[in-house]
Design goal:
The protein is α/β, with parallel strands linked by helices. The chain folds into two domains: 137 residues, Aspartate Aminotransferase, domain 1, CATH 3.90.1150.10; 227 residues, Aspartate Aminotransferase, domain 2 (3-Layer(aba) Sandwich), CATH 3.40.640. Helix content is 42%, strand content 14%. It has 14 helices and 15 strands. The strands form four sheets. The chain has a seven-stranded mixed beta sheet, sandwiched between helices. Helix 3 packs across helix 11.
Length: 399
């Protein structure tokens, strides 16, 4: 059966479906009618094979407690081996309702209240939330923005922060959201060696692993057995196949004792069996979804090229760097001279857009806006045109 959902240009109206992205503006303090580019899901229909699997599950008519069996693991493991040369053992897999949930449980399982947890800001904002909400101390070794707009790691600062704050756990974002970096094997090896030397447990969020435009994604734990023994690898089909609402993530913890500690925290949260529909969708995606994934990635790359060219050549005082990975464009608006509050008003009130303001990613993100470009190109163009017009008008009014 051929893949049917390869039309990425047609706009699918998500309004009226209780979509977080489109139907909750007023609940989130925004006016109605904004063009929405914030939360990281796609505006594309998922693979038709995934739809068929969901339909088959729905038609069965009984939606009782469900757990994955051998076929599910085989689908996940084959995907990981084929694309990343990662060969997890079946016993290492723990299915959770999401990667952020897993991050929080790792914080609870591998640190104690008051312990220091390291992140690299600007970074996906739940990283700081799962640390602070669990009464741990948040420490950031901020990424360094180069003259070329590309983020780099300050390894000396990274190690100094670990020593100075007695860091117990490091939350790694790989590929990086919102900076768009696909960390090289060398960069990851150096980070891991520092963590190993200071007995820091690594939780590697690799949810964007399939959305890579340049470079190659390296699964952190494949670098060495020593890394694998001191880390948790967090993955999901949710970003790749646009099934985040089905609430399934695949977490790999190789060390048995650490895995048991992780599972105890999950049990303490009250969570047990996964979402039955999500399991069916994930398995179908990994068994049959490659044609859709490849086509979606090609479309996303053309969107990326269009957006980078438009921002750098059409929007005054705005710059961006071509992503190596993720479908989240990180736009630098610091040259506008606007404060974060002024930028927010310009984006919302003047441009009539819903974006993710940079300051929510930490102080290092101030002056930036994050734009989700996983949408039809005509919709993306409309949003960028609105941003351009608002900035042009603001520049004129300030003269």
């Amino acid at each position: 059966m051929p893949e049917r959902n390869l039309d990425f240009d047609s706009f699918v109206d998500r309004r009226g479906t209780d979509s977080l992205k489109f139907d909750h503006a007023t609940r989130r303090g925004k006016p109605e009618g904004l063009l929405s580019f914030w939360v990281a899901d796609m505006d594309f229909k998922t693979s038709s094979y995934v739809q068929d699997a969901i339909r088959e599950t729905a038609e069965h008519g009984i939606y009782g407690y469900t757990e994955p069996k051998e076929r599910y693991f085989a689908a996940v493991a084959d995907w990981m081996k084929t694309r990343f040369d990662f060969e997890p053992r079946e016993e290492s897999l723990v299915v959770t309702p999401g990667v952020v949930f897993a991050l929080a449980q790792c914080v609870r399982a591998f640190t104690a209240p008051g312990d220091s947890v390291l992140i690299q800001q600007p970074v996906y904002y739940p990283f700081s939330e799962v640390v602070l909400d669990n009464n741990r101390r948040l420490v950031s070794s901020d990424l360094v923005l180069g003259d070329d707009g590309r983020y780099q790691i300050d390894f000396d600062d990274f190690e100094r922060k670990i020593v100075d704050f007695n860091v117990k756990l490091f939350l790694l974002c790989s590929p990086h959201n919102p900076g768009g970096r696909v960390w090289t094997r060398g960069e990851l090896e150096r980070l891991g060696s520092i963590c190993l030397a200071h007995d820091v447990f690594v939780v590697s969020d690799e949810i964007h692993n399939d959305v890579v435009f340049s470079g190659k994604h390296t699964v952190f734990e494949t670098i060495s057995p020593e890394f694998a023994a001191r880390c948790a690898t967090c993955t999901s089909a949710s970003k790749t196949f646009n099934i985040a609402g089905l609430q399934v993530a695949n977490i790999f913890v190789s060390d048995r004792n650490l895995r048991l500690a992780f599972k105890r925290e999950i049990a303490a949260s009250g969570y047990s069996q996964p979402n039955a529909v999500g399991l069916a969708a994930t398995r179908a995606a990994y068994e049959h979804g490659e044609e859709w994934r490849a086509a979606a990635l090609r479309y996303l790359e053309r969107n990326l090229d269009f957006a980078v060219d438009y921002v750098n050549n059409e929007i005054p005082n705005a710059t961006t760097t071509r992503n190596e990975g993720t479908y989240l464009l990180w736009i630098n608006l610091r040259k506008t001279g606007l404060s974060d509050d002024e930028l927010e008003r310009l984006v919302v009130d003047d441009a009539r857009l819903w974006l993710d303001g940079g300051r929510m990613f930490g102080a290092a993100g101030r002056g930036f806006q994050r734009v989700n470009f996983a949408c039809p190109r005509s919709y993306l163009a409309q949003g960028l045109e609105r941003l351009r017009d608002a900035i042009v008008n603001a520049s004129v009014s300030r003269k």
